[in-house]
Each structure stands twice: as structure tokens, then as C-alpha cells.
Design brief:
By secondary structure, this protein is an alpha+beta fold. It has 6 helices and 19 strands. Helix 1 crosses helix 2. It starts with a strand and ends with a helix.
């Protein structure tokens, strides 16, 4: 079986076919989308598209057929990981930007789990098939603190904490513009974007799922603001959607923010800075911290010097 996705081209997102699809299907790489075009799986106004560079115009309809893939084989790969903490129950890592957490469609290798299995093979027996030990995730471009469970009891313990919102997550985000208040709380339901089903959006009343995000200004610049952000719920892309809704999208976020970044960045400026959890067999929470990566530090220093 395969699934089919359909999109309508607007005046704002007209242009190359592969770029258009990359914006609509955020979890697919551009290379994979180009492969689908080459395999004859993409149609424009009912005609099979032959080239990724095909120019799209306002009002055209694009259909993509995505074939089901065989189950991903979990490979062990000798990839370096930045270990923050480990004990017999958990592993806490500092995930780098650009690394996907677990294998999935189009990403059978090079993920954090592929690397973790080479070092902790017991993870294969923990959690869900295809994502062993995974109790929460970070977007590919988001760096920072991520915890894995080493045993099934620890997995259930941690999953319950995340679902019951007993964990405390703190992110650092550089945003375009200045928030309406130095500190605030965003309460707006998040659901699938009705026009672009691979994206999330703030939902209309009675739709979507409840989402709450708090923010605090850490440092202000002429055209940007560094925020400390605490998501009180865990919706997909919640921070990015909420900050864009506030009018201050995450700098470098081409999906929910500006298509052309306001400063030169290889990824969007979002870092999972701190995570507070109660470890198995403990009563009080433990806080884990991942320092801001060097590439993001450099951008802040340029802003402090009045450069971009």
C-alpha cells in the first residue's frame, strides 16, 4: 500500500517543484523528494512530473504518492556521542544539530539510536520497535539534552513523567524581532496545518491539542531576542509554532519563519538547554545541562558586536 498527499500551489510558494515539496513535507529530505520525482511518483495537474526543477505556478495541484517502505533494520554504527550522564537505568546525551533521533522513512542510518546501539546494545530490548529506548525526541536541527532509557522499567517510568508533564524542559531560542512583553505565556492549541498537512499550526477553537509555552527574555538585540523557553506541553514543533504565532519566529526556521534567514545560520537557533527529571529509584529531580553549542555562541557574539 502507499499513501497519497495533495497540495495547492499559492502565490507565495510558487517556484521549483522540489523546493515546494520540501516546504510542504518537512520530515522528508530534499534528496528523497527528488528521488520520488525521478521515480514518477509526483504529478502536477494530473501530469507526471519529470524534473525537480519544474516551475510551479499559483493554483496548480501537486500530488505525491509515497510508497510504503520495508521495516527499518536497526544498524549499530560507530558514531561519536556527547555523553552527559549514565547509570544502570538511563543515558543522557547532548544531541548535536543535524542528527535525527531514530531511524525512519529515508533515514535508516546515521541516527542517534544507530550510534547508541553500538555502545549500549541492551537498548534493543527497551521501548518501541524501531525506536528503542526513546522516551522523547528533538527535531533534527535542534541540539541539546536528550534522555534514553536502558531498561524497560526505566522506560515506563520516564514515559509516564513526560506524559504527566512532571519533567521540566528549558530551551534557548534566538528569535526574529522583539516579543510584545519581556516575559509571557502562550496558550494556543496546536494541530496539523489544514493547507500543508506535514506542518503544524495554531488551531481554531475546539480543534488541535492544548499547548502552553512560557518564555523569558535573556538578552535583547536590535532586531533579535534571546529567549529562555519552557514548553509545558509536548506537541510536535510546539515552540517553533508558538513563537511564530507570537510574531517572533525562531531565527533560521525556514518552515515556520522567514524563508531567507535574517542572519547566516546553517540551522535554526533552538537548543534544549536543560532537562529536569526524577531518575528511577530517586525522589527528587535531577537537572541536566547541555552548554550552548559553539556555532550558536558565535552568532550571539556577532550580534553583541553589532554584526549579523
Amino acid at each position: 500500500m502507499s499513501r497519497s498527499l495533495e497540495f495547492t500551489v499559492s502565490a507565495e510558494n510558487s517556484g521549483r517543484l522540489d523546493k515546494f515539496l520540501s516546504a510542504q513535507i518537512a520530515d522528508f529530505s530534499r534528496a528523497r523528494l527528488q528521488a520520488l520525482i525521478g521515480a514518477g511518483k509526483v504529478w502536477v495537474d494530473g501530469n507526471q512530473a519529470e524534473k525537480p526543477a519544474l516551475r510551479l505556478e499559483h493554483g496548480q495541484r501537486v500530488r505525491v504518492e509515497i510508497p510504503d517502505e520495508a521495516p527499518v533494520q536497526l544498524l549499530e554504527e560507530n558514531i561519536s556521542l556527547d555523553l552527559i550522564y549514565q547509570d544502570q537505568n538511563v543515558i543522557v546525551l547532548n544531541k548535536p544539530a543535524g542528527m535525527i533521533v531514530h531511524p525512519g522513512a529515508g533515514h535508516a542510518a546515521g541516527t542517534l539510536i544507530n550510534a547508541a546501539l553500538a555502545r549500549w546494545p541492551e537498548l534493543r530490548q527497551v521501548g518501541e520497535a524501531g525506536r528503542p529506548g526513546v522516551v522523547h525526541r528533538l527535531d533534527k536541527e535542534t541540539s541539546g539534552v536528550l534522555v534514553l532509557a536502558r531498561t524497560q522499567p526505566a522506560y515506563l517510568w520516564l514515559v509516564h513523567q513526560f506524559k504527566s508533564r512532571r519533567t521540566k524542559k528549558t530551551y534557548l531560542a534566538l528569535v526574529d524581532g522583539i516579543p510584545p512583553t519581556p516575559a509571557g505565556r502562550i496558550e494556543a492549541a496546536v494541530g496539523r496545518d489544514e493547507r500543508h498537512r506535514q506542518k503544524m499550526a495554531v488551531a481554531y477553537a475546539g480543534q488541535g491539542r492544548k499547548a502552553v509555552t512560557e518564555y523569558l527574555t535573556v538578552e535583547s538585540f536590535k532586531n533579535h531576542t534571546l529567549l529562555e523557553v519552557r514548553p509545558l506541553t509536548g506537541r510536535t514543533h510546539q515552540i517553533r509554532v508558538h513563537l511564530a504565532y507570537l510574531g517572533c519566529p525562531v531565527t533560521g526556521d525556514r518552515v515556520y519563519g522567514r524563508r531567507k534567514p535574517t542572519i547566516a545560520l546553517e540551522r535554526f537557533f533552538l537548543h534544549a538547554y536543560k532537562l529536569s527529571i526524577i531518575l528511577p529509584d530517586e525522589k527528587e529531580p535531577t537537572e541536566f545541562v547541555a552548554p550552548l553549542p559553539e556555532d550558536l555562541k558565535q552568532k550571539l557574539n556577532l550580534l553583541r558586536q553589532g554584526q549579523s
